[in-house]
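During data preparation, we tokenized the protein backbone, and the record follows.
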Amino acid sequence: MSARLAIKALNLRKSFGAIPAVQGLSLEVFPGETLGLLGPNGAGKSTSIQILTGLLQPDSGEVEVAGGNPHDPSVRMRLGVAPQALSLYEELTAAENLSFFGNLYNLAGSQLRDRIAWGLQFAGLQDRARHRVSTFSGGMKRRLNLAIAMLHEPEVLFLDEPTVGVDPQSRNHIFESIAQLRSSGLTIHYTTHYMEEARRLCDRVAIVDHGKLLALDTVPALIATYGGESQIQAEVAQWPVELSSRATVEAGILRANSAKPLEEIASWTAVGARFQTLQINSPDLESVFLSLTGRSLRD
């Protein structure tokens, strides 16, 4: 693997019986980059993460993470994983959970004590250190889950839906924590269903479906390429008949699509169109997602 890459996946394939889960997926993630992974239910995201973190062996293809094969225990020790299914022991306290997982990462003595103190502060749980996790809210558990993933200071961090089921305050705390990790130069692989999270936190976004990579780029570039035209909607006060072929006007409501909505509106008003209200909906990451993956329900 090139020294410039933190994650490299080349033509990964994985099937479960006759059901293909990953079909020729290729990804490259640079050191210090946060890559967002978006896809509908059943798109192959979880299987891809399990391959990248060494939990599953691909049927074919190549994968290297943090400079080696993630199936190598020494490489896996350089990875941090915060799974969607919380990896916590409910009957242990926050500090005991951190201690247990720290021992799994070969931390001991003063180093372990320092990292436990860091983890409690990172999760905002200093005052709940001796409380059982079973008494914690969903947001507190998510924050502790993230702290455990970072306890051994990994080179690459995998986050799978880290804000599912959390309150707004915890969600904001997690955002700030991830921003802090990004600024430290950590490489992050971030899986989410929330478009706003991907836009806010990720340098680039990969959209996958049916086990295939559909698009990978920065959010502005994805929108420019796949987002489509802006949607114009207005309450019409006056509408020249000669412009009726350029937009739909029904019951006094105008609807039109345009790649240059401001220029379009200016051309209408120049020849006498007048509006009581006017709204422009520009394409966004959700527009890109639906354009590439479709609008049918996924269960």
